Amino acid sequence: MGVDRKAFLRITGMSLAALAAKRAAGAFTKSGPSEAMSAPGTLNARRWAMIIDARKCLKQEGCDLCIRACNRSHNVPEISDRRHEVKWIWKEPFKNAFISEQSEYANAMFQNKPFVVFCNHCDRPPCVRVCPTQATWKREDGIVMMDWHRCIGCRYCMAACPYGSRSFNWVDPRPYIKDLTADFPTRTKGVVEKCTFCAERLARGKPPACVEACEPKALIFGDLEDPASAVRQILRLNFAIRRKAELGTAPEVYYVI
Amino acid sequence: MHDRGLIVAGLLAFLGLITLPVWYDLAAGKTPREPDLKLPAHEKECVAPIPYMKTSHMQLLNEWRDQVVRKNIQTYTAYNGRAYAISLTATCLQQCHTDKAGFCDRCHTFNGVRSPYCWDCHVDPQTVHQAVQQTHAARTGEQDGR
Amino acid sequence: MFMFEKALIGGRRYWIWVLALFAVIGVGFLAYLRQLDYGLGITGLSRDVTWGLYVAQFTFLVGVAASAVMVVLPYYLHDYKAFGKITILGQFLAISAVSMCMLFILVDMGQPVRVLNLLLYPTPRSMMFWDMVSLSGYLLLNAVIALVTLSAERNSVPPPGWIKPVILISIPWAVGMRTVTAFVYSGLPGRSFWLTAILAPRFLASALASGPALLILLCMVMRKLTRFDAGKEAIQKLAIIVTYAMIINVFFVLVEIFTVFYSRIPEPMEHFEYLFAGLNGGASLAPWMWTSMVLGVISVILLIVPRTRGDERVLALAAVLVFVSLWIDKGIVFVVGGFVPSPLGAVTEYAPTLPEIAITLGIWAVGFLMLTVFYKITLSVRATLAGME
Fold first, then answer.
1. Residue B47: is it exposed, middle or buried by C-beta count within 10 angstroms (0-12/13-18/19+)?
2. CA pair distance A159, A166, nearest whole angstrom
3. Which residues in chain A have their CB less than 8 angstroms from residue B69's CB?
4. Domain for residue A10, yes or no?
5. pLDDT for C81-98, tens place per residue?
6. Chain centroid offset of residue A77 CA
7. Which domain holds residue C284?
8. How many CB pairs lie under 8 A apart between chains A and C?
9. When comparing pLDDT for B23 and C119, which is higher?
């Protein structure tokens, strides 16, 4: 016999350790997914942000065009059991959406008025920080993106999100999708999903579905790093608030009230 | 050895069972044929050479997945210089292999690859088309008072 | 292999116990197959309460696993001879507990087939990555240590010199592992129930109380059922460790309550209000919370008084109270309480479903099976040695 058992175990152990060290070194040195290629026909930015003009939105009582557009274009399932619901964009009363602004009288004007909420695509997203497989990450253009192929469904990102923006597929969503479209995949049970600022539409030069569907043009989408963009103009001239800004997540969804 | 007969008989029975997949079809007179695949009607060239696609389309799809989702690279330049949008549904299914059941599924079933999990999420445009047609037929049926 | 044949020889009681465990494991396994098919919707979890029984059991058991350090440290660092017979028991308890932890994480995952993504795409900024590293490392350390020391004992030779630094490494490793598990929770800005610096110390204190308490009970059970006797001194020393750890644990909880209720910041307060009294009509955890508190206080009283601590029947009761109190705390209340109310102020209650409980019991049975097999092997080795002398 050539190699005895101890020597074999030693060699195997050292080989595995070397492999692991190589991987670990890669993990520490790699910075993440590389720069998006700016091809013709795409919408590019350095910091995508969304403004919700609540003044215009609140005038349309009962309107849910943005929600229906998003659900339709992304095969978002409609699950009646509140425990298992999946929602990317929905309406929440002011006192819940802006829970840190709790006051008996200061917000009396808005307390129960519905405000549209969705993923804030934070500049310092806690969900990205905690994801153990980089199934969610922050792109160079500011979008907090999802990779449904890699998500292991640990739901750590859901625990980390201070806004409750993320949904988990507790069951197979297919039976609950009203109008299935082939333009966008569905998701499978066991992965987390959320708004992705319609990255697939931006790649084809189109604005997010909700922005396009909004009739009073209350949703404004643009590049915060571009001083001439619509979002910068509006923020210069109007007072805007963000949800739970004190937590340091730097949300990029602004509400002009 | 008293049990030699029993042991040998047992071994023969085991060998027979373990080689069942090999001789069963031969005994029944069925010869395995290659699956009858429905090729695309309009396209003659694939995004990569056919032999490569036969062996490695899975790897290509994995690369496509990472390019689109993680690197936001939307276009693929094929070996013949043609540019394709990187999309399983839009390019592979809608542009060329419109009959998923007649092409993709047939080969997968033949090779015992039970429904690659891609289809858990990626939608076959054919099923959506059929569903829309069914709804339309049902609606016109109602209108005619049938 | 690994002296496993020693676990295959046993009396009637032994086999009834083992078969009962297999039955529970079987039921749990079937329930898990159902969960794989249907999805995690088969549990009582919801969009608001995304972690429940599985992750809570994991959180509790990491503490039990880390507590092996409390028998290893006195013996190897301070030459406390009375623990000589039970360090291996502590290490086997650690192995069983860590295995249970990993199983609980696996059954909680939405896409368990993708578990290798944790290794293929290592993410050092995520605390869950370090959790996986520290748990795996701890399992490996304890497995090597237990195997080497038990083999050496069986062959009546001293263990090889290189095992000593490995054992010493396991001490800070255990503390680090427990701390990382706390960091999984205490770094989340949106969960004010968990966002406290005292979380890691709290986790360590409860670990060092619950683990040795279980070890005391295991030693007492073995003294009754087998010829193994850990010795009165060892058990009393473990009792003192549990006493101090439990006092510190209760103190930490009171300190947290002060900070939250004196500062009166609404969000953290509402979590505690929900747990103690209920919020917006939802109060399902209040009985559990109060039971945990009361049992904890009673156990501290029983443990502090030397006469009751010295009486082994009362000590057994106190150990049970400690274990149950801390199991309710870390194994139910701590995790669920962090999700109620939700970041939007909603109160969504959580109660585990039958399949969820079946899977949980199945994994506990796996842990107890491992423990049974390991202890059987250990005791057989020692019985053989005693018989040879």
1. buried
2. 9
3. 145, 147, 149
4. no
5. 999 999 999 999 999 999
6. 17
7. 44-221+232-352
8. 152
9. C119
Closest by CA to C102, choosing from C327, C329, C363, C353, is: C363
Q: What is the pLDDT of residues C296-343, one digit of tens each?
A: 999 999 999 999 999 999 999 999 999 999 999 999 999 999 999 999
- What span, in angstroms and rounded, lies between the C-alpha atoms of C123 and A158? 17
Residues C203/C256, Cβ–Cβ less than 8 Å? no
CA distances in angstroms from C200 to B109, C59, C137, C138, C178, listed in the order given: 53, 12, 20, 18, 7
The nearest CA of chain A is from the CA of B114 a distance in Å of: 17
Could you give phi then psi for residue C145, rounded to 5 degrees? -60, -50
B chain contacts of residue A147, beta-carbon cutoff 8 Å: 69-70
The per-residue pLDDT for C62 is: 97
**Out of A236-240, B36-40, B95-99, which region has the weakest mean confidence (pLDDT)?**
B36-40
Question: Cα–Cα distance between A249 and C163 in angstroms, integer?
Answer: 46
Could you tell me if residue A25 is inside a domain?
no
User: From CA A181, how far away is CA A41, in angstroms rounded?
Assistant: 23
Specify whether the CB–CB gap between A227 and A255 falls below 8 A. Answer: no
In a domain, C31, yes or no: no
Structurally, how many domains does chain C consist of? 1
Of C38, C129, C344, the CB nearest to A132: C129
**Residue B130 clears pLDDT 90, i.e. is over it:** no
The percent of residues in chain B predicted with pLDDT above 70, rounded, is 93
Q: Which of these, C385, C77, C87, lies nearest to C231 by C-alpha position?
A: C87
Considering the domain boundaries, does residue A15 fall inside one?
no
Of A26, A92, A171, the CB nearest to C344: A92
Q: What is the CATH number of the domain that holds C256?
A: 1.20.1630.10
* Position C285 in a domain: yes
- Provide the whole-model pTM: 0.90
Q: Give the integer Cα–Cα distance in Å for B63 and B57.
A: 10
Interchain CB distance below 8 Å, C345 and A95: yes
Name the region of C66 (left: φ>0; alpha: ψ -120 to 50; beta: rest).
alpha
| E strands, A94-212, in order | 114-118, 136-138, 144-146, 167-168, 192-193
Query: In the predicted model, what is the mean pLDDT of residues B95-124?
Result: 88
**Contact across the interface for B124 and A182, Cβ inside 8 Å:** yes
Total structural domains within chain A: 1
d(CA C347, CA C246): 31
